[in-house]
User: Fold this.
Amino acid sequence: MRDASTSAHDPVTDTELANLVAHWRAANYLAVGQIYLMGNPLLGEPLRPEHIKPRLLGHWGTSPGLNLVHTHLNRVIKARDQDALCVWGPGHGGPAVLANSWLEGSYSETYPDIGRDADGMARLFHQFSFPGGVPSHVAPETPGSIHEGGELGYSLAHAYGAAFDNPDLLVICVIGDGEAETGPLAASWHWNKFLDLVHDGAVLPILHLNGYKIANPTVLARVPEPELDDLLRGYGHEVLHVTGDEPYAVHRAMAEAMDTALDTIALIQRTARDEGVTERARWPVIVLRTPKGWTGPATVDGLPVEGTWRAHQVPLPAVRENPEHLRQLEAWLRSYRPEELFDHDGRPLPHVLACVPEGARRLGSNPCANGGLLLRDLPVPALEPYAVKVERPGATLHEPTRVVGDLLESVMEATSERRDFRVVGPDETSSNRLQALYGATGNAWQAAVLPVDEHLDRHGRVMEILSEHTCQGWLEGYLLTGRHGFFSCYEAFVHIVDSMVNQHIKWLKVSRSLPWRRPIASLNYLLTSHVWRQDHNGFSHQDPGFVDHVLNKSPEVVRVYLPPDTNTLLSVAEHVLHSRDYVNVVVAGKQPTFDWLTLDEARAHCARGLGVWEWAGTEQEGKEPDVVLACAGDVPTQEVLAAAQLIRHHLPQLALRVVNVVDLARLLPETEHPHGLSDSQYDALFTRDRPVIFAYHGYPWLIHRLAYRRAGHPNLHVHGYRESGTTTTPFDMVVRNNMDRYQLVMDVIDRVPGLAVRATRARQAMEDARLRHHTWIREHGTDLPEVADWTWQPETGGDDGPPR
Assistant:
């Protein structure tokens, strides 16, 4: 452990210290005012109940500690001309960050109606946690923020994501001791092992131990200090402590700790960049121990508050109704001596702002926190050199993700100098057939390297860690600070980040309504190793429900694509890499898949989002079909086309239409999603009254939910994954879930009026094929030759012979 006093930087003078304390007092006053006041902001008259908000919302307990950090960040940023960004892990400390943004002037520049004067202060107070105002968290509305913190666990991953490929940026991350108990945060202490000393910035974690969560003590605040030091040292950090409750002593210690930390960081980076030292560094971390609710009421109604869990939210809950609470609130506010901090017009006095940096150096004005300001178009090459040749549908097979891996390699190579594109994934880049990326870069890695290792690179831009939480957090931080990225993951385990993607979608939805927030690159998921091809992993790896989860979210933000072959995946990849302010979910297999469309056809099909594949059906021009076979996903598409071929053979007089869906949101009404179809468009494709047999990649009820308002919904019959999985052959998976070609044909026979009587022999042939399948796989361990060797035959007519 290093004491803060070991800093080589000149200590703060008494005048500087007094100004720092004054700034901190002002921020505390503004934080309390936001929680309680809707009038009388400068206490120009005695406080009355009508000055108090009718509903008291917000979090006081963490605010004084955050105000302390913000005050001292101002000092070191100004003194060192430091490019800095802060991630506020205790996001419910919104009053503190808003207060500091208003003090430094960035808030008034962003919202001119909230000036840095008494009227602006009154509006700042009134809007907080008030209808039509701003949330209590450090939300998108807060200048300088990239992390809301409403859901705990992700602050440090966001901080490292922001630091990657930002060599001059210092990212401070304040971690609350409640958040420190979460699994994602606990794993995040390892991320210093991925920080490139040459090309990345630095992350300074500040572990704020105020002792309590909402109602209980926190683990790290109660373990003995030597044990905590051993833990953090084991994670690769050098520990600096700041502890106390006497303001001047704590401020002096905090100044010394910040100087020591920044001196250490500067030395680490200088020796790496100027002297070529490549050994992994031991980065500083500050452990800050101050009381929860510091400077607030010591007791309320005879119970201790300051320094306890009771200070977490609103220490004085009944100010309007209880005269004693009102008296305590006024005494609390006046304890900060606002007359010494603000002039008669409510403007902060010069000594209060002495520590505040100027312009873009202010934490609320750093362009990295409004990443769209820095975003450059991604150099995605033309697709023609990567497209597979398709002379006729279904004649060849390719691994779609392997081909898109070639495209991503070119993007990675094209950004090798500007370094603003990364691919993340949980140890699956090669498994997901994206290993072409290693032709342009390696896996980021700063720890030991052994001779047997492959693709490890201190400067690599593929990020692999067996933690989906981390991949998500890294990528969010990277995107929010103005860069591009791609997240490759096994389909079943992307569910681990369900709640994280919720928060990012909410952030994007709100950001889109803020004109000063510039659009950022979309968060792009490639979900592969999917439900239908888990040949050796089995049931535990079979879950296609992430799509359902995402499509529940804000329709203006979410997009879901299921390209059926290689060229459509290329087209979708090109689109999502260029898109802005979306969460794009792309589901595509890595196993050999039939090629159905040329590149030009794929582009047109993806632009439509869905369409009729005339070459696969048997309907006549100008006449409605007898039945529609629809599909979404690579395996469902193959089964539908195999079923169509069987229908051509066994039921040549049946008018069949085949519809393929790439963009699932197209099934929604246009009033529900920007990509939705009008009723007339939907009916033109699926008809109003003919049976629609739909083979879908995921849970079948999702398709019903998307289309339930359509006139033809009673005729919609969906086949998909029905939670029947195991380790088995590829075709047995679709048989187990009743999505196989034979079942689809039987469903057509059963659903088309009058067909069952005329097609008895054909239906029996389908049943016999399924029985033959069950016997065969148990004897041979492989699929039937007629399935394993199947190819699309464009013209099949004939008799009622055995299915092929």
The chain has 25 helices and 22 strands. The first strand starts at residue 83 and ends at 88. Residues 392 and 482 are 42 Å apart (CA to CA).
